[in-house]
Design goal:
mainly alpha, two-stranded antiparallel ribbon, two-stranded parallel sheet, 26 helices, 8 strands
Length: 557
């Protein structure tokens, strides 16, 4: 048919019928095969496989082309060289170091020109300070390990015994070895990754001997239980650093969301705060630098220009950090309980103090108000240290020659300032400063001890910790309505802590006989009418559980 058409160029304008007939014959040759019934079905199937767009057709030519998966070798060599010259150009491998360097150069240049804030503060902080962020994913496990140690050993060991007890010894005798080991692994990683960044705690510079410690199972447990002195300062300083660093970065995330056009009030409202008691892995700052962030940047944030220069999309990289890793993380509020050893100077016995200074209970309203004003176990612990100082001085005042001190109505703030000559003392509670007198010290001390210590009966022998049966528990609850629990509970707690840590008393003896010779205002409990309602059938083996039932009923009323 090609031979019958002498001038193809004239087809741009068909001047006569012969030219029209020639064009129609040529089109028929090209199009008729498509409409042959025998081959039509096969051609439709071929087209569908080549250009299909359904979910199961992702391997088709069309979808491959959209996803940039076309095999370049399938193109003719000359066409490939003409249309795709970048295929032959040298491309250096992606380098996160070069990416960071270019980001820093851009930030420095913009700050010099505009003298303004950073354009990509989150990305810049992340890349330049990434090493300080690595231990933050282990913060929940570090808190968990400290909590486990406190629950098991608080007030149960003297300092020397704890100093010679290694983590390996503890893990061997742990009740739930897997839980303890997982918690320790997190604590170890947090220490070994973050400890080098901890220089001081408050105004106290950490000793070099402590700074050189590498955490492993051979280390003493003293370094793992928080306290504001000696080896315990290390665990406290580490937790404080991790919480502070977490909050600094989370605040930067909120700031970046605001600068990207977020509503200020909405963002402030969405800020959430989680205490260390409830801080979990879902709240921690966790990310994958090499497995996720770096590959994403290499694929989606790098462009090669016609002249061979590399251009980075920093905004896209920063948005990826927000979307995948950091948006929605809460601030953390540090509430760390301090360890108390049996031989600590602060571990005072208030028995002699009560003999020298008459004591009265605190009202329930004052108790709740003081704890609310203190706000955290750390603040309560500082207040308790001040009370211990007062108790120690008052017990020593007059020696054995003075049996009673007429100072019960003196305000504790006045005693600290005028007698102990301690200026600028902060109690952490206005109620303590303005209203609490020396006659309230014993009651306040016991309240703070219960608030700061995970289990006040930790050192009590197990034989006194049997649970009550349902019938006995009901009897205890019924009797609590007839007892003066505000008087009974402080004395009962003190007696359990003081006398039942050695295990010398029989577990089968009656509780009422044990408590009957406790004193209040120089009067034995046995001589008080309300104590006659104390159940006589309760045995010493249940005394800890009896106390908890009384305490629960007192708190509920």
């Amino acid at each position: 048919s090609g031979g019958e058409i002498k001038n193809v160029a004239t087809w741009q304008r068909l001047r006569d019928s012969s030219a029209r007939n020639g064009w129609e014959r040529l089109m028929a040759v090209r199009t008729d095969p498509w409409f042959e019934s025998k081959s039509l079905g096969m051609k439709i199937a071929t087209s569908k496989s080549m250009f299909g767009t359904t979910d199961d057709d992702e391997g088709t030519v069309f979808m491959s082309e959209l996803m940039e998966r076309v095999d370049a070798t399938s193109m003719p060599t000359k066409l490939r060289a003409h249309l795709c010259p970048a295929l032959w150009r040298y491309r250096s491998p992606f380098s996160l170091e070069d990416f960071t360097m270019e980001l820093n150069l851009l930030e420095n240049m913009q700050q010099e020109e505009k003298r303004g804030a950073s354009s990509f503060p989150l990305l810049t902080s992340f890349l330049n300070e990434e090493q300080t962020l690595r231990p933050l994913r282990y913060l929940p496990a570090a808190i968990e390990f400290q909590t486990l140690l406190l629950k098991r050993f608080n007030r149960a060991l003297d300092r020397e015994t704890a100093l010679h007890m290694t983590i390996k010894d503890v893990l061997k005798t742990a009740p739930n070895k897997q839980k303890w080991r997982e918690a320790f692994e997190g604590f170890k990683n947090a220490w070994n990754l973050g400890w080098r960044f901890v220089e001081r705690f408050g105004c106290l510079e950490l000793p070099k001997a402590y700074k050189d410690i590498v955490m492993d199972e051979s280390i003493s447990i003293n370094f793992c239980m928080p306290q504001e002195k000696n080896q315990g300062i290390c665990a406290l300083a580490l937790t404080n650093y991790l919480c502070t660093r977490h909050n600094q970065f989370v605040e930067l995330v909120y700031e970046r969301l605001l600068l990207r056009g977020g509503n200020m009030q909405r963002i402030e409202d969405r800020k959430s705060v989680v205490t260390t008691n409830f801080f979990s892995t879902a709240h921690a700052l966790s990310y994958s630098l090499q497995d996720k962030f770096s590959p994403y940047v290499a694929k989606n944030c790098v462009t090669l220009t016609d002249d061979g220069r590399i251009v980075y999309d920093f905004e896209n990289a920063e948005q990826y950090l927000l979307d995948v890793f950091f948006t929605g993380k809460p601030l953390v509020k540090q509430m760390v309980r301090m360890v108390q050893y049996r031989d600590d100077e602060g571990a005072v016995n208030t028995h002699l103090f009560r003999q020298k200074v008459n004591q009265v209970p605190l009202s329930r309203e004052d108790q709740k108000k003081i704890l609310s004003e203190l706000g955290s176990p750390a603040a309560a612990n500082k207040c308790m240290r001040l009370l211990e100082t007062c108790i120690s001085f008052l017990q020593a005042t007059g020696g054995n020659l003075v049996q009673k001190l007429d100072v019960a109505d003196l305000k504790i703030s006045d005693y600290v300032k005028d007698v102990l000559l301690m200026d600028g003392v902060v109690f952490g509670s206005e109620t303590v400063k303005r209203n609490i007198k020396l006659k309230h010290v014993d009651a306040l001390f016991k309240i703070l001890r219960g608030y700061t210590v995970a289990d006040v009966f930790e050192a009590v022998r197990p034989k006194y910790k049997d649970s009550l049966d349902q019938k006995a528990s009901s009897i205890v609850k019924d009797s609590s309505r007839k007892l003066q629990l505000e008087v009974l509970l402080p004395a009962m707690q003190e007696a359990i802590i003081q006398y039942l840590s050695e295990g010398n008393m029989s577990a089968d003896g009656p509780i009422h006989e044990f408590l009957g010779y406790m004193e209040h205002d120089d009067v034995y409990f046995n001589d008080m009418p309300w104590f006659q309602h104390f159940p006589k059938m309760l045995l010493m083996k249940n005394i800890c559980d009896v106390y908890k039932v009384f305490e629960d009923n007192y708190s509920a009323t």
